[in-house]
## 1
Amino acid sequence: MNLIDAENLTKKFGEFTAVDDLTLHVEEGEVFGFLGPNGAGKTTTVRMLAGLISKTSGKTQIGGYDIGNSADMQKIRRLIGLLPENVGLYENLSAYQNLDYYGRFYKIGEEGRQERIELFP
Ligand SMILES: Nc1ncnc2c1ncn2[C@@H]1O[C@H](COP(=O)(O)OP(=O)(O)OP(=O)(O)O)[C@@H](O)[C@H]1O
Ligand SMILES: [Mg+2]
């Protein structure tokens, strides 16, 4: 089964086309390298897949859920993990506090958070 199915995915910022008709398929368990020159649209694509920005056109499913549908996007967000180029960590918090803070967004209970954070000493 394909985990990512992008068909003619396109993103325009005003008149400028940043991602132009991208079609790609990534299978479950596949390690996929997404390469291209600076400005090719890699980050813009990943931001669309993660639901951080909307697509302009095209159809894309992740795990069978549609990135254009907000209810589906909530489910996709539970499936994916994203390490962006600029990591949004708070420097005035400790490593533990950062993990604890993000764990709350994933609705992990206090005990669960503590247990999982301690797995990474
Ligand atoms: N929010 C935005 N508004 C307008 N143009 C944008 C925006 N974000 C990206 N772009 C433009 O879209 C194009 C693709 O940018 P993107 O950051 O996706 O490229 P990239 O492949 O990730 O490049 P790099 O290898 O440098 O990280 C670039 O020309 C960029 O200037
Ligand atoms: Mg980039």
## 2
Amino acid sequence: MTPIELLQELLRIDTTNPPGNEEPAAELLRGFLADAGAETHVHKSGSGRANLLARLPGPTDVPALVLVSHSDVVAVEPDQWSRDPFGGEISDGCLWGRGALDMKSITVMHAAALAAVASGGEPTRELIMACFADEEAGGREGAEAVLRDAPAAIGFADHRPPPEALGEGGFGLSGIVDRPLMPIVVGEKSALWLELHAQGDPGHGALPPERQANINLARALTRVAGFGTPRVHPVMRKQFSILAEDASGTQGAVFKALASEGGSRVARLLKRPLRARGAIATLLSDTITPTKIEAGYKHNVVPGYASASLDCRLLPDTDVDALVARLQKTCRNYEVEVREHARHGGPVSARSPLFETLEGVSRDLLEAPVVVPSLTAGMTDLRYLRAAGASAYGWVPLVLDRESLATIHGHDERIKLDDFTRAVRAMTAVVRSACS
Ligand SMILES: [Zn+2]
């Protein structure tokens, strides 16, 4: 089976999460990897979700290399698609389907790379592939379950250096600077999920009470929601210093200023233009975003209670406890109580030998990109591995434009076959080089 055929088959399995239904995908991959000579195992979480694990044994006194992906996908709105989202169809030079970018194509890159290494005899380190379930719903039945139940299966053991890991989060991007930008993601913003509970006096809409829950909630939200004060995290400082060498004119000057000692002050001054450029602004600020507001039930009744959910995405060095305390203090002024719902996060990985391999292969095999360390605003399973001590990098050897990027979790997700074939080669080069 060629990588393209394997990806077609994988895309035809509907792993929309919930419910996930990852088992057929895990079995398909297990067959491919066992044929290639790997030891394979499907690890079931407590509720029966299937996590595929494959390994090529190697010396255990050095860190294992773990290739991390997930087999579940997010839901589709089929009537918004111009092709069957689960048809595995090839047309216009692309392979179409939910998961074509996030991230079944990357799972196949990992599988093809492992197969290539297997054909070359015993690797110089243990090579593991983990295709987890449940990533799109937070990873409780996937990465979290495997790490808790079978840490050795993904390279964690006493008296052994923690593994290096490679996963999602770092697509190459075009249209930001002159050359394609190839980020190697070393850390993620953390997520803090809060609930706001507002109180007031209930009453008749014709006789509005003095204290109203809806108004209290609205006032609290307008005070706390939005972008926090911009600042330049050390990882982004390094990124800007590399970009400054590459860019000229105004753009070059801006990167240079952001990379300087006073970079955070510059980021504050440039708050508006940076925000207009989109994604970059999210990597320079904490963001606090209301995602759900619930209140009221009848047009002429004033409710005594209202609530909201906040999705806070915080730079890795933000003091989370201090932030919660500050939000509590502000909200108390409006009779709004802040309760914590969940916290996700992990440390930032330092530069390890794998980082250098990724840098080299990015330069050699892709269209002469600018390679930079980066953070990502999103959350991936790599946070679990970083928290357990792994050096983990988000790196995907595909260069996407804004239009393709929008198909991830959007409509008409697809991958160009030429890009995919080249990416399989680049992934194989990385894994081979890291295992020899
Ligand atoms: Zn993903």
